[in-house]
Write a structure and sequence with these properties.
about 100 residues; mainly alpha
């Protein structure tokens, strides 16, 4: 991206102290769908182990390995998209007592 800038833009960024190799503000690579599922499932398992059920509030956020996971929204969305979930994923949630 730096190579696409005009010389004037490069000069202005350099005077501001922006380094083309500076990745501190870079976003991490997006997770794959399977990786997102794994994180959400880990949050569901953690919540179920602690609370004994899988009925968090829609706005509930579960902390998993220092990362905030919007568990309530995930489960609500899973219910709405139940017909599109694979049998394996449905079974993983059923083990935790998922209410469809």
């Amino acid at each position: 991206m730096w190579s696409q800038l005009t010389p004037g833009q490069v000069y202005l960024l350099e005077t501001l102290g922006v380094d083309p190799d500076d990745t501190t503000g870079a976003r991490p690579a997006p997770r794959s769908q399977d990786a997102r599922w794994a994180v959400n499932l880990a949050a569901a398992r953690q919540f179920h182990a602690r609370e004994g059920h899988l009925r968090p509030a829609r706005k509930h956020v579960e902390l998993v390995d220092g990362e905030e996971v919007k568990l309530g929204a995930f489960l609500d969305n899973a219910r709405r998209r139940a017909a599109k979930l694979s049998l394996e994923r449905r079974a993983e949630l059923n083990v935790l007592g998922m209410r469809w």
